[in-house]
Backbone:
């Protein structure tokens, strides 16, 4: 799908993002299932709150992790997240 | 119960992720394919609310994230709302697995207030007559009404339909019904032959011909409903050549607690000649990490040939221990579903025998044998050792 960077994504209603101490990572929970997120995926997902646009999320991440050019990776992850239904546009 | 994206347990003990609470074996339905043990009448004492709360706290502390409230019919338990609230408060993703019988709008609202995340409703068939016959109760219209209310309260909804010879030819109607009810997920759960379905297998196993047809229809709907509804269809493993990676490995992610507090690595394992601990005696941590029952089939050292030297052993863990036990008398044998198992031919012979029964039924050469319904009366007879004929 085409991702518009002014879109404001939110976590879809049947999914829940949660930090798990034991697993030491963010997880996405849904009916009878769970996906463990990598460190970078977790950093992206935790900023998806129905308030920040994709542009703002990318800027925030590039401020926090200035050594990397992140835009392509963020877009790639968002494509996966949209396709799995974890997130949707507000 | 898919846990996508998880690393499976190889040899070390990783924490439980799935806590399944079989709150009670009481149930207003009598489905002849119920996965509960045949000995349901034996379970008179149910553990208390406090016991369940302690279990949930201990498992959560170890890292469990998914919590299923099941049964029997979990709605029978009057403390269900309280347990849901506690589970949600602890940070579980909470799943209610129900027939919908015993539910009304007021209760759905209370579940919402308690923080319940998801409701799964089971249907027996796509029409009133067969649904009510299989469930042994008049429930079809009520189930549909409950499905509408579940959606009204904005829950993600899973519709679960157990598939077998009596309803598999309705596949298209079943899927149309799930579309009409706006299901988010549809589980077309092929009957697994344990417990009650095992004693009814001659009447329940679909033929290969039925399967092929049903699978085609399911795939057509999977394609058509992409993005709207996720359809999960697993064919009965009697028709496979490799076994399922049962429970993702013994004591790897699943923890079931039965109504009397017995802890099991899977809800069928109670039938094995293994001693399992009770939550009234031990903590979940002790049960999971140290009890002989939970360590019995961990790792690969317990395996016999052909599993021991099999390159696929880390993929399917030798299949299902209960199936191996039921069909070979030894739970450490390879699951006979595997065509490397020396017992595989016996399974094929059995499938062929059942296929002949199905063909005769179809041609009206024989009268259909009655199903043995899952109820306390039949369970008591089974406990007394009465024969199959006396159960009907």
Residues:
């Amino acid at each position: 799908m085409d991702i518009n960077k002014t879109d404001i994504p939110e976590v879809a209603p049947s999914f829940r993002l949660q930090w798990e101490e034991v697993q030491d990572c963010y997880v996405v929970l849904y009916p009878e299932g769970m996906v463990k997120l990598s460190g970078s995926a977790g950093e992206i997902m935790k900023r998806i709150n129905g308030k920040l646009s994709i542009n703002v999320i990318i800027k925030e991440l590039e401020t926090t992790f200035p050594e990397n050019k992140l835009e392509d990776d963020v877009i790639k992850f968002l494509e996966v997240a949209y396709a799995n239904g974890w997130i949707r546009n507000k | 119960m898919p846990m996508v994206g998880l690393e499976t347990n190889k040899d070390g003990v990783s924490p439980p992720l799935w806590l399944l609470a079989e709150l009670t074996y009481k149930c207003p339905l009598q489905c002849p394919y119920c996965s509960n043990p045949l000995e349901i009448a034996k379970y008179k004492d149910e553990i208390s609310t406090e016991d369940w709360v302690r279990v949930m706290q201990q498992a959560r502390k170890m890292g469990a994230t998914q919590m299923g409230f099941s049964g029997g019919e979990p709605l029978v338990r009057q403390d269900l709302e309280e347990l849901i609230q506690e589970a949600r408060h602890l940070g579980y993703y909470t799943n209610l697995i129900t027939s919908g019988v015993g539910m009304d709008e007021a209760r759905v609202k209370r579940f919402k207030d308690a923080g319940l995340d998801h409701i799964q409703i089971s249907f027996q068939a796509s029409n009133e007559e067969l649904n009510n016959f299989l469930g042994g109760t008049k429930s079809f219209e009520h189930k549909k009404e409950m499905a509408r209310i579940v959606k009204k309260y904005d829950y993600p909804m899973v519709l679960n339909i157990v598939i077998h010879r009596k309803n598999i030819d309705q596949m298209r109607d079943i899927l149309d019904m799930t579309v009409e009810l706006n299901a988010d997920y549809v589980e077309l759960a092929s009957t697994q032959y344990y417990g009650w379905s095992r004693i009814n297998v001659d009447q329940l196993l679909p033929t290969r011909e039925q399967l092929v047809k049903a699978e085609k229809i399911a795939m057509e709907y999977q394609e058509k409903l992409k993005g709207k509804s996720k359809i999960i269809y697993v064919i009965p493993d009697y028709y496979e050549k490799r076994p399922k990676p049962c429970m993702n490995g013994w004591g790897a992610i699943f923890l079931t607690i039965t109504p009397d507090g017995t802890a099991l690595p899977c809800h069928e394992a109670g039938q094995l000649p293994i001693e399992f601990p009770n939550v009234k005696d031990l903590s979940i941590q002790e049960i999971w990490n140290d009890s002989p029952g939970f360590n019995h089939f961990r790792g690969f050292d317990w395996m016999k040939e052909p599993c021991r030297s099999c390159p696929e052993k880390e993929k399917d863990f030798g299949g299902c221990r209960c199936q191996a036990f039921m069909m070979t008398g030894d739970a450490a044998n390879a699951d006979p579903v595997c065509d490397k198992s020396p017992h595989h031919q016996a399974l094929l012979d059995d499938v062929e025998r059942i296929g002949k029964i199905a063909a005769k039924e179809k041609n009206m050469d024989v009268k259909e044998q009655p199903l043995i319904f899952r109820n306390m009366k039949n369970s008591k007879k089974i406990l007394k050792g009465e024969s199959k004929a006396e159960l009907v």
